[in-house]
Q: What sequence folds into this?
């Protein structure tokens, strides 16, 4: 407060000095200004980081808990002791790292500090909670009837399929959907980006409306159409539906990438003797590799996590995908055995998170509504 | 107005040092130019002076006080960016008045001062327009007015003329110089254009790879460059350079032997400016390989025992043709010798 | 003679060109058109027809009728309640999280050192990138009404409070926050890139001109946010109006109908009660709203930029 008033006075003095363009005595009080700036900078950064840490905790903590439960819960019970012990070790470590990060500009110091902290945390955790870790909750991976065993209900034939069937279905769904979207959307995106044809403008407008249009509202008629053509409760039906309703979005994304390819390169391919189809395949497509990867990753993750449509359009348990498997597991044994539910969740979430983490640099290349995301 | 001192100023980015120890003193009211190729650290130095970047090490001193930690807003520094950085959502008047918002100046007083400054840089009729409705030269003037309106201690110009066309650049050079003289504000111009630096500034600081190579007037830089870099960077067309060996009174350049006076030995580089070479009745023989008329003079390329040589001759038309043989002479005072390893100039001269 | 051969040849080329044009159209656009016609356009038409029938769980249509709309307007008190829930849900989620909090996140994560900012943005993207069933499960664990719930753990041990049952007592709050966390991340991404696309020199100039943090936000950042904010508002209003995934998973629309928003109401009518025609009629309203919003967004977009003229004229 005192420094502040002082600075204002000094500023006013500087003002007067500048106006009369003389007076050596009217110079700003530089040391006071520097002091104020240092305090302000430190306070500002700490406030920002504190804010971000606090608002992010409600997100980090539950994910963290899920992992902890999956590796520690025994015979259905949940002990939160491990969670809080781990937090007590990890949170201070993260804070120390942030302080180091802010104080030390050199990347080498940061890395050394990071490795040291990581080792400390690892050692502390191993000694404090290491003994309580186990893999028993993951036994659903090799024991197919585990859910029935837990509920101790002898369901004839077993209501729950092996997790691997659901896993296979999810992979099938995600890969087929990605393949369809990549092929169809890159063909269409290229055509509306590069070809002159009658009705191009109308088509583009139509796509724009569809791209913004919420397909979720169509779930009832889609259900009926699949029922009428006999594709209800088949993987093929779900794959076609999901690929289609997301198609306009991806057509636009890829159109954006095609728009950015310089015309010269295509023109020179054609003067070199290529047809437009050859120019597309041999010259233009390789140019938008980043876009294709981004679309593939995004489409895969979206398909992997889909719930509402698969819940509505797939019924029999041999057609379950991972989201349905997890939903029914949690629905059935949530109150009985937290550990298994958490383990199934971790098993389900890891592939999409890995993909997201490793392909983030591609995903940021996508533009949403004309803005780079 | 302020006297500025930089001592051992450094700025380290994650990968490399942008500024690697700059020492510089700028007198109150001086107009200096910082000249150097792109990436030499000149703009980074400017940003540190403005308080946008904070130095990794070293001191920035205003009037004897260290201001490293003082916020940009408190430094009372005006700055004109290469892109002008006008606020697109504000009118010209609002742009010019913007710095006064934070100075506790009455609105009417602020407007009066903004109009006064606008008149100084001759943009008074444009005050209601938006930046997007202005030409490049007009935007430049608005940026200058915005930098000057708060009566800064220090005016920083970051490549202010590089986005203007040639004729506009010429008139803005005189204009900026006039305004600087009128206000007497300490001014630092950052540029990669030696003509800009020599015509506008009292003194020139040549920077390379994050360091100051030499400080001096245009004449000093041209006639007595301290380093090979300064000799190459200042002067157009560029200086002729020859790798040479100095041994006991003789300099061996390619196939030619020149007599050497002064202290020099080992591997050196000989530099002779194209305008120092004259066609005379005695000298080194050379055969013309190309003649390029450049308006009022002709630039010749010739092949001689020293290697490829370029020289200038006054006159609109070429007097020598491709294949002509002639003799080239230069005065020993105009020959420059540099140590090949360190790039430092040696106190030695050669004659043919 | 020669001229007629030339003419024949020219028209031959022209015919080949037209043929190639048709073939290219079929090859490039055909697959997309077929898929969109079958699973996007056809459902819209089916819904339009269905809304005027009496289809029930037998999936048979016996007659065409306006009954569904009559019921909607005059006899469905639950629909009125659900409209209220929808309004609160959409306005609160959008206003608090998808715009305001997203903007706050974008501003703060761009104001801290780059690596830390990226870290916090990645954290906030976690819910969006993880499957909805998992995300919903995490919420169920957090708000678990007995003392095992994560929230109750914190309340009991840190603040010494009694355990609370949010799911039954404040279900609307839960679905607003749960959807808000997801929505905030999209806004954060869009606003962050909008802030990033402001020329750096403008920030530098403003700082040299003496502006502090708030004036910079007001005079430099906000003017550049007008378009992203209006885009986000329309886009997110629409997506909040129609999406009920997290609500269905976390509260199931309950307790009773307390968190049944309009779109979930349509879904529950169709798939829980087998009133397919009534569900279709309810969806029809959402479809109309969707088309209108899509058209508004289309107006917002810069059509001329999207429609660059093709510079190769042959096919």
A:
């Amino acid at each position: 407060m005192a420094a502040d008033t002082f600075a204002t006075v000094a500023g006013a003095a500087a003002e007067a000095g500048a106006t009369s363009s003389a007076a050596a005595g009217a110079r700003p009080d530089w040391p006071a200004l520097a002091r104020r700036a240092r305090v302000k900078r430190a306070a500002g950064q700490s406030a920002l980081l504190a804010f971000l840490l606090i608002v992010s905790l409600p997100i980090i903590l539950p994910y963290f808990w899920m992992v902890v439960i999956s590796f520690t819960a025994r015979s259905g019970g949940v002990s939160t002791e491990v969670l809080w012990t781990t937090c007590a070790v990890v949170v201070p470590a993260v804070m120390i790292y942030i302080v180091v990060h802010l104080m030390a500009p050199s990347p080498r110091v940061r890395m050394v500090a990071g490795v040291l902290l990581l080792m400390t945390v690892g050692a502390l955790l191993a000694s404090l909670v290491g003994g309580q870790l186990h893999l028993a909750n993951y036994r659903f991976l090799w024991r197919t009837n585990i859910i029935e065993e837990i509920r101790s209900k002898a369901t004839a034939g077993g209501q729950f399929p092996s997790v691997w069937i659901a896993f296979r279905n999810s992979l099938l769904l995600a890969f087929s959907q990605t393949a369809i979207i990549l092929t169809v959307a890159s063909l269409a995106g290229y055509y509306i980006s590069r070809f002159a044809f009658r009705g191009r403008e109308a088509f583009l407008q139509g796509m724009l409306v569809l791209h913004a249009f919420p397909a979720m509202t169509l779930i009832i008629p889609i259900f009926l159409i699949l029922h009428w053509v006999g594709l209800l409760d088949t993987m093929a039906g779900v794959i076609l539906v999901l690929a289609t309703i997301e198609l306009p979005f991806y057509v636009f994304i890829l159109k954006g990438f095609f728009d950015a390819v310089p015309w010269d390169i295509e023109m020179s391919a054609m003067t070199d003797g290529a047809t437009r189809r050859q120019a597309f395949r041999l010259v233009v497509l390789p140019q938008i590799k980043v876009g294709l990867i981004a679309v593939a990753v995004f489409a895969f993750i979206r398909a992997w996590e889909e719930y509402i449509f698969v819940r509505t359009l797939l019924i029999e348990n041999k057609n379950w995908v991972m989201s349905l498997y997890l939903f029914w597991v949690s629905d059935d044994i949530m109150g009985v055995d937290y550990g298994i539910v958490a383990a199934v969740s971790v098993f389900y979430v890891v592939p999409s998170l890995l993909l997201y983490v490793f392909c983030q640099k591609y995903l940021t290349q996508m533009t949403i509504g004309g803005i780079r995301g | 107005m302020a006297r500025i001192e930089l001592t051992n100023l450094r700025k380290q980015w994650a990968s490399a040092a942008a500024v690697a120890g700059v020492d510089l003193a700028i007198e109150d009211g001086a107009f200096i130019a910082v000249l150097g190729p792109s990436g030499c650290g000149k703009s980074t130095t400017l940003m540190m002076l403005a308080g946008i970047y904070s130095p990794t090490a070293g001191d920035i001193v205003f009037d004897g006080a260290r201001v490293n930690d003082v916020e940009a807003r408190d430094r009372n520094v005006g700055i004109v960016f290469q892109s002008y950085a006008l606020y697109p959502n504000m009118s010209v008047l609002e742009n010019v008045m913007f710095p006064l918002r934070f100075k506790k100046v009455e609105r009417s007083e602020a407007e009066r001062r903004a109009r006064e400054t606008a008149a100084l840089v001759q943009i008074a009729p444009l005050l209601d327009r938006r930046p997007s409705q202005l030409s490049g030269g007009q935007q430049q003037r608005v940026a200058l007015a915005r930098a000057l309106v708060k009566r800064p201690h220090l005016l920083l110009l970051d490549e202010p003329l590089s986005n203007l066309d040639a004729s506009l650049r010429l008139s803005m050079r005189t204009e900026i110089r006039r305004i600087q003289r009128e206000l007497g504000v300490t001014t630092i111009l950052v540029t990669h254009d030696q003509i800009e630096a020599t015509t506008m500034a009292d003194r020139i600081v040549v920077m390379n790879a994050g360091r100051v190579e030499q400080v001096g007037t245009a004449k000093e830089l041209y006639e007595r460059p301290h380093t090979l870099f300064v000799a190459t960077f200042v002067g157009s067309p560029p200086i002729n350079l020859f790798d040479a060996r100095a041994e006991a009174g003789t300099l061996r350049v390619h196939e030619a032997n020149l007599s050497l006076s002064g202290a020099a030995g080992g591997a050196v580089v000989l530099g002779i400016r194209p305008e120092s070479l004259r066609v005379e009745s005695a000298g080194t023989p050379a055969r013309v390989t190309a003649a390029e008329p450049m308006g009022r003079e002709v630039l010749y390329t010739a092949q001689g025992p020293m290697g490829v040589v370029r020289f200038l001759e006054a006159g609109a038309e070429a007097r020598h043709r491709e294949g002509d043989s002639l003799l080239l002479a230069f005065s020993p005072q105009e020959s420059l010798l540099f140590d090949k390893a360190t790039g430092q100039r040696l106190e030695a001269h050669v004659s043919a | 003679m020669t001229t007629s051969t030339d003419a024949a040849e020219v028209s031959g080329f022209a015919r080949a060109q037209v043929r190639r044009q048709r073939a290219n159209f079929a090859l490039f656009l055909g697959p997309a058109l077929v898929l969109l016609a079958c699973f996007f356009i056809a459902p819209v038409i089916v819904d339009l027809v269905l809304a005027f029938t009496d289809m029930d769980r037998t999936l048979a249509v016996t007659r065409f009728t306006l009954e569904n709309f009559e019921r909607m307007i005059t006899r469905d008190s639950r629909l009125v309640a659900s409209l209220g829930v929808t309004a609160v849900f959409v306005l609160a989620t959008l206003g608090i999280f998808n715009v305001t909090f997203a903007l706050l996140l974008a501003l703060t994560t761009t104001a801290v050192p780059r690596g830390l900012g990226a870290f916090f943005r990645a954290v906030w993207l976690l819910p969006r990138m993880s499957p909805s069933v998992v995300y919903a499960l995490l919420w169920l664990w957090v708000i678990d009404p007995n003392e095992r719930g994560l929230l109750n753990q914190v309340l009991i041990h840190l603040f010494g409070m009694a355990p609370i049952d949010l799911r039954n007592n404040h279900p609307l709050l839960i679905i607003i926050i749960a959807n808000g966390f997801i929505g905030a991340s999209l806004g954060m991404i869009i606003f962050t890139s909008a802030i990033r696309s402001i020329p750096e020199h403008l920030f530098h100039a403003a700082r040299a001109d003496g502006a502090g943090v708030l004036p910079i936000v007001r005079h430099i950042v906000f003017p550049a946010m007008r378009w992203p904010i209006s885009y986000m508002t329309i886009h997110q209003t629409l997506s909040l109006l129609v999406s009920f995934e997290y609500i269905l998973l976390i509260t199931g629309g309950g307790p009773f109908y307390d968190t049944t928003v309009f779109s979930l109401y349509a879904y529950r009518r169709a798939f829980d009660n087998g009133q397919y025609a009534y569900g279709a009629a309810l969806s029809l309203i959402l479809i109309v709203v969707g088309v209108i919003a899509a058209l508004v967004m289309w107006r917002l977009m810069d059509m001329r930029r999207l429609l660059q003229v093709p510079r190769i004229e042959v096919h």
Q: What stands out?
A: DSSP finds 15 helices and no strands in chain C. Chain C has a mean pLDDT of 85. The longest helix of chain C spans residues 2-50. The two ends of chain C are 30 Å apart (CA to CA).
